[in-house]
């Protein structure tokens, strides 16, 4: 089968190309940047280029995007061209070429301010039913691209699956305060409780989404590591997160102490992957328990695929805040 991967020089795109080639797919890798995983160099905002790349393709994995860290360095128009216009051209040419399924990588950032609880409110339970309130051009354009996918499924019969992925980047956190307070691995491990997932699991979600696309037609799914928390934990997570974590993992404090790690004092949201596990048959491997066991054994926390891909970064330059620009 011939498949197309957009953003093939990027983090998820490279991981997808690696895995698809291992599975003996014929892969067309598309990106504006050259790499060993990109066969076609050009912009998805160029309709003629997209048309050229689509010949014979049966499945599109659309991972190319401008990300949140680009908000301070790119114009709103650039976000529209890449995230909306690029998605539109891919959908149009997919229909014209007879593509059988389209998997779009979106982001939990589309929820935006809907994930921000008020003072004294419980943590937010983030499912597909939460109404998005995007807080920047990144969220706005990704949400618009999701709607385009739904439009093309409804009007043209193109099976489209939208995966709203939580954070899986290997780079340091984009918030300076968190970078200065927590060791990088400590911070990421904490996030597996409520807002992070592993690259290997993201790739697997893409593959099962493609398998289910024709049957489902259209669907939006939160893709994140399985959280142990329940709705009844939401109030306590705002005031004493460590106590709640201890309820589910009585051994975590000793493991953390041995690594000189610490837990967050507060957790303000919980991403829920139940719908993706139920409807896609997706079974993420990496969760907080898995990480604890790896820590106990002194093993590497990342998947082999994540180690192979490494960190890509978002910019070629260095900023006053280190790896991230300040808007």
Automatic annotation (TrEMBL):
InterPro entries per the UniProt record, alphabetical: Epimerase_deHydtase, NAD(P)-bd_dom_sf
Domain NAD-dependent epimerase/dehydratase stretches: 3-172
The family this protein is said to belong to: Belongs to the NAD(P)-dependent epimerase/dehydratase family.
Protein name: Nucleoside-diphosphate-sugar epimerase
């Amino acid at each position: 089968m011939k498949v197309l991967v957009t953003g093939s020089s990027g983090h998820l795109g490279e991981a997808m190309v690696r895995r698809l080639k291992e599975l003996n797919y014929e892969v067309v890798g598309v990106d504006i940047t050259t790499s060993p995983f990109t066969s076609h160099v050009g912009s998805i905002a160029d309709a003629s280029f997209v048309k050229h790349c689509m010949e014979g393709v049966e499945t599109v994995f659309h991972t190319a995007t401008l990300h949140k860290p680009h908000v301070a360095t790119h114009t709103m128009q650039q976000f529209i061209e890449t995230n909306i216009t690029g998605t539109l051209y891919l959908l149009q040419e997919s229909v014209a070429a007879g593509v059988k399924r389209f998997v779009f990588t979106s982001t939990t950032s589309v929820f935006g301010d809907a994930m921000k609880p008020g003072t004294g409110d419980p943590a937010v339970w983030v499912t597909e039913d939460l109404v998005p309130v995007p807080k920047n051009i990144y969220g706005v354009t990704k949400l618009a691209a999701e709607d385009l996918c739904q439009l093309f499924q409804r009007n043209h019969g193109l099976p489209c699956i939208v995966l709203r992925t939580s954070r899986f980047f290997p780079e340091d956190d984009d918030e300076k305060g968190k970078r200065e307070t927590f060791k990088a691995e400590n911070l990421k491990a904490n996030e597996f409780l409520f807002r992070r997932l592993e690259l290997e699991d993201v790739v697997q979600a893409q593959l099962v989404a493609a398998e289910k696309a024709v049957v489902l037609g259209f669907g939006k799914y939160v893709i994140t590591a399985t959280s142990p928390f329940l709705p009844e934990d939401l109030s306590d997570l705002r005031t004493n997160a460590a106590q709640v974590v201890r309820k589910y993992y009585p051994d975590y404090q000793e493991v953390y102490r041995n690594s000189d790690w610490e837990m967050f004092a507060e957790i303000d949201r919980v991403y829920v992957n139940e719908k993706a596990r139920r409807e896609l048959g997706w079974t993420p491997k990496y969760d907080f328990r898995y990480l604890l066991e790896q820590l106990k054994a002194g093993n590497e926390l990342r998947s082999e695929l994540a180690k192979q891909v490494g960190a890509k970064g978002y910019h070629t330059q260095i900023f006053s805040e280190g790896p991230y620009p300040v808007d």
